[in-house]
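cache lookup: miss for this entity combination. No prior model stored, computing from scratch. Input as submitted by user K.M.:
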Amino acid sequence: MLIDWFTVIAQALNFLILVWLLKRFLYKPILNALDAREKRIATELADADAKKTEAGQERDEFTRKNEEFDQQRAALLKKAEDEATAERQRLLDEARKESDTLRTKWQEALRSEHQSLNKELTRRTREEIFAIARKTLADLATTSLEERLGEVFIRRLREMDGQAKEGLAEALKTASDPAIVRSAFDLPAEQRAAIQHALNETFSAEIHVRFEPAPDLVSGIELTTNGQKVAWSIADYLVSLEKDVGELLKEKAKPEANADAPPEQPANEHGT
Amino acid sequence: MRLSPDEIIFWQYGFIKLNATIVVTWGLMLLLTIGSTAITRHLSAGLKRSRWQNLLEIVVTAIEKQIEEVGLSHPHKYLSFLGTIFLFVATASLCTIIPGYEPPTGSLSTTVALALCVFVAVPLFGIEEQGVGGYLKSYLKPTIIMLPFNVISEISRTLALAVRLFGNMMSGAMIVGILLTITPFIFPIVMSLLGLLTGMVQAYIFSILATVYIAAATRTRQHEPESGSAP
């Protein structure tokens, strides 16, 4: 008999035990490990996907920020350029204005210098001319001329009329100091006597007179007393002429030339 | 001439006896269990794992894939039963390279026991899947006339299952034994190699047939419109 029934039962039991043992020690752990691995791989894949998505988002964000930054930079650059252009324009304008001002000032200074030079030249010329004239006349003055001048002075005294004569007479009378007769040269004794005489006659009184030489009276004589004066001299002519010339120059020159007024004319009531 | 390791009896007490078949089966059980435990004790769920773990994973997933290919949609449920049939038969034949070893599958008692287990498991799985009525109805298909033939087929296929494995395993050991007496040296080794190959093929055939039977018993309802899907 090939089949031993006890062995059959024993083998069937053995087989069932083996099924349980292998299930317990082989299939379950292996399948669990496989499941765990699959789960882990799935998790890792999901993680990778999540990271990929995140990376994509970050990349998008970065790209967006980059673009924003580019735009901002461009805007800033443009603004800076505009500002630089404006600043440049402003500086140029300022410089132009400054240069204009400087040029104006310079021109002004030049003109002023020119004017003052002109004035100085005019003044010097004038002074020189008059000095020459005075010198010429002074050199020419001789005794006969002096005498002639004395005669002219005396005649003038005598020919004085009305108000002038009265004013002078009053002045002579009230004066405490003696009247001063000044001349460009020392008067000779005869002339002094003639002048004293003429004064006495003219004002019908004894007039105290003091004679003084005055070189600036170019070829002339003058009588001064208590603010009143009778004079005659070439200087008067010259002064008159100088005044005319000065006024002529003044008219031509700019108003600034005011300062350079002609020499003050002595109080002269009778000078011609 | 000894046809079965049943005949080697180590200990006997009336009906109860301890023969070589049972002892060798215990040895195989011990080997399989200890081997599995040794490998699965340090299982790694990570991407790096030992070669032995890799081997076991390949074996388990291959069995699982085979079950799925035959048509069982939930291989996990049947893996323990069908996988153990394959592993037991395969290990039993692989160990024939050990001198003096007697494969327990070379005993008709063992193969009958295995076939009986399949014979019981098929209706159990079938009833679990489609209920008692649903399962019993499958015997009446396509017509009620087919009932006796269906029953006969159920019994005969179990017998065929047992005898096929026994014949192959027994003949393999037998041929090597006979050849050793006729042609020494090289030739028996070649026959041993052939025996290993047929052993593996028998393990595959036995487990795949069991799978097919279970699949036929559980799939009936799903394929009702087609009907008569039993092999």
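stored under new cache key. Chain B touches chain A through 47 residues (CB under 8 Å).
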